[in-house]
Write a structure and sequence with these properties.
- The protein is α/β, with parallel strands linked by helices and 720 residues long.
- It folds into four domains: 1-127 and 141-222, 3-Layer(aba) Sandwich (Rossmann fold); 267-372, Magnesium chelatase subunit I, C-Terminal domain (Helicase, Ruva Protein, domain 3); 404-437 and 536-719, von Willebrand factor, type A domain (Rossmann fold), CATH 3.40.50; 451-532, no CATH class.
- The protein is built from 27 helices and 21 strands.
- The strands form six sheets. It has a six-stranded mixed sheet, sandwiched between helices. Strands 18-17-16-19-20-21 form a six-stranded mixed sheet, with helices on both faces. Strands 13-15-14 form a three-stranded antiparallel sheet.
- The chain is globular, with a radius of gyration of 30 Å.
Amino acid sequence: MSRTTAELVEANPSTSSGNEAHFPFTAIVGMDEMALALCLATISPAIGGVLVRGEKGTAKSTMVRALAAVLPPVEVVEHDRFSCDPGNPDPDCPDVARHGHGQVARPVRLVELPVGASEDRVTGSLHLDALLKSGQVAFEPGLLAQANRGVLYVDEVNLLPDHLVDTLLDSAAMGRARVEREGVSVTHAARFVLVGTMNPEEGELRPQLLDRFGLAVDVVASREPSVRVEVVRRRMRYEDDPASYMASHSEAEKALADRIAAAQARLGSVRLTDEALVQIAEICAAFDVDGMRGDLVTARTAVAHAAWEGRDEVTADDIRVAARLALPHRKRRNPFDDGDDNQLEDILEETVPETDEDSSDPVEDNDPSTGSGNDTPQDPSTSSGDEVQKPEPDTTTPEPVEGPQDADPKAEAPANSRGGSQGQAAGVPYKARLLSLPSTGAGVAGRRSSAEVTSGRQVRSVLPDDPRGQGFAPLATILAGVRRVASTPSTSSGAAVETCSETLGAVPAPSTGSGTGLDLQGSDLRKAVRRGKEGNLIVFVVDTSGSMGASARIREVKTACVSLLLDAYQRRDKVAVVTFHGKRAEVVVPPTGSVEVAEKQLSRVPTGGRTPLAEGLQTAYDLVLRERAKDPTRRALLVVLTDGRASSGGRAALPRAHRVADGVKAQGLASVVIDCEQSRAGFRLGLARDLAQHLDAEYLDLGELAAEHMSRAVRARTAG
């Protein structure tokens, strides 16, 4: 490693060079599909990156870090901050003046992007020292520049702000990064292998962002005892003596590195025939894939797999492997659909015939970890790989709840106050009207309520010690310096104006190199206040008691909840669900970013019994208090779906519920009450409206929740 690289690694702990101790890539057991996807993305970065979805503790991060260590070294221009290729230097590189200073070989760099990284840190920004000391507008490279010709790893990519995910995926697809902000206009190479990992329980990526990842794999811990034993055994051997364990796998690691290098060299000579293109198009069309990105990625992956297998022409097996990796996450579906795992296999059977009679699973045969050394078990990792990979989704995916189309209306029984009913499924969700919090928050970026966030429209500037400031405001800083010069007592009024004009004109462009400019001081520094949208914690408080009426009404309520959950999914909220019936309330879904989990749990909630309204409100309020202690910036919104009745506790039940509501109101907790009372002969008690008054909440009738209802009302009012 050159001195320059060592300095970069030391200065940036999120960057590693591949020399650190790491668990060997070839020693990882039971992750065949993920290993293959990573290798293919490395062979052809144009694929667009890999998304790895899996539960915690499944070695996702371990495998990514191990991959970087086995990749072949790269030749870079010495002292070039953008890792340009000496054989093909980038003419637009900001360090183009250094391209004649020789070259040096270094290990592939692994750059880890933290979830809390700012846009400036990712793309690059102004060099503040140069700007403040000499007036020079100089560019300070970000993580995209450091990751060029390396691996960019984003753990918990689903928690990253959407605009940063867009930036990463655009750069990964185009191989270049463009920075146009704050007086900086820079374009530089940014060709890297993008790997994102996520735990679905923490929240899903939006479909638009999910589609931008080239390949996607799902990983779960094996349920096979022999595999789990081998995983623990290998890890403990490594921890006992890392150096010795790595040495025992050095030959397998070198063989893998050589195979990747050979595939990279062969990639350009692999032929993709018209027949193969037709097969890919037929598969994508039959699988109902939106757009053409799926076709392109499948084709590129098939070519990379052919190169990986040492072939000069794409075969049917290459197409099958590529389709399994590139298409399942692109299928058009509703956010809460479980999907049909067998549909793609059926399409492949009809479209692409099997050519290898001795191959039961192309992914397994291409396992890079096969033959990893003395520790490789024959049964778990080679002969039974199919059993390790395929049954796992069935062990973790809950059985789908029958939808409304499968239900027999005649079989629905009323949920009376005594017996109750089990798990009424929701109907087809609809687009719900926007429910938002008042005032301006400062929470996590999202799409619901107004907030001062790290990205968005700049509304004003503040002093550096103001906590509302988010990032450097160059124009405001310069203007503050100009005003200070203009107000200097020793300068006459006319002269001050002239000086200001000259000073503004003296701020040089990057190409001047004059070293002259505005003499800015620390007191001139300003930070930007940016206004955007935030995501909230939406706490659904759902009345599932017998007072809600028949099963049909409960179904309407659950449909409304699912519609609101869909809205929360689109607006990047966290959600929680509290239900109350009988004598108590229960948190059936603790605060989570996965609204799919909430939807599934809600579908299983039983109904019936008395109405403990006070307990439901109190439980929801206690939950909000706990979440405030964990994340004070994320504001909460209570969404109460009830008819307003309270019957658990006798005649004192309703007054007690109103007292709890008054207490919630006193704490300033924003609420919405959705009236679920059924009209009986045109008569309604109006208890939900009374509850809304005690909560100081927005009041909506259940039928008014749909956005279409509001649109119709507006059209009706404007028609006359």
